[in-house]
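Hi R.,

Here's the chain you asked about this morning:
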Amino acid sequence: MARVSVFGGGSWGRALAFSLSQKNEVCIVSRRDVRDMVAANIRQVELAEALMSEYFVIAIATNALRDWLGGIALPKECKILAASKGIETAHNAFVSDIYEQYTSQNNVAYLCGPSFASEVLQSLPCALVIHAHNLLLAKEFGALMPSFIKTYESLDVIGGEIAGAYKNVIAIAAGICDGLNLGANAKASLLARGLVEMNRFGEYFGAKMETFLGLSGAGDLFLTSNSTMSRNYRVGLGLAKGKTMQEILCELGEVAEGVKTSEAITKIGQEKGIYVPIAHEVYAITEGKNIKESLDTLMK
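And here is the predicted structure, written out as tokens:
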């Protein structure tokens, strides 16, 4: 039985703590009291005790990750499963770029794939991909997972990261599409072109197409673009109803990574000359652009 510390008490952090507690000794670190939200055999502890575990699962929001890592002293040989998805807006940095400033890339694996926290908490079956430069580490984390989570390993770290970040942006667009009742034809076109756009962006950074056609890409994209269990999808629904971003985020009560990620992708696309029309329009809408104008722009 391994000792695992989960950092971050949001919905995904709690779901991962629950999952890992099926086979391991698990503790969780969170600013909120989460003891009543997780299994009885999961302890909520202070940071110092959590840093003594063998395995770390870090589910900190991407745009808060750098400050969080900079405020602690990671053990030199710690084994980390990164559960954050998104691109850091302040530096247009991928999650792996942030981790490389604090530990060796061989010590970090990245969890991707279609997975709603609420279903994981019900022990419903799902399949995920653990991306890592170190496949042995990916296999170690896979062995810690419960029987209802099937894991695959991949060396395509950047592909997994981009897929996990980009699908949240397309999910916002999907919510807008459904919120406006634009129809099944429009929705299918949006998701297909969104997948193409995601792959184009990833190709620039050396990602593999197979990643975007698999669980980390298409699997997660289809999941988050078709259910109100997706926070990003609900952002799109709210925008379609004319709500402000402040109203939507207040109603959600949690971070919707796609909002900030649309900004980061747009800026990276402009800087690198990558064509990202859907991400660009999602960002413009979150900044106040009229949705019908954005639709006209995409149709032209």
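One quick note: The two ends are 57 Å apart (CA to CA).

Cheers,
M.
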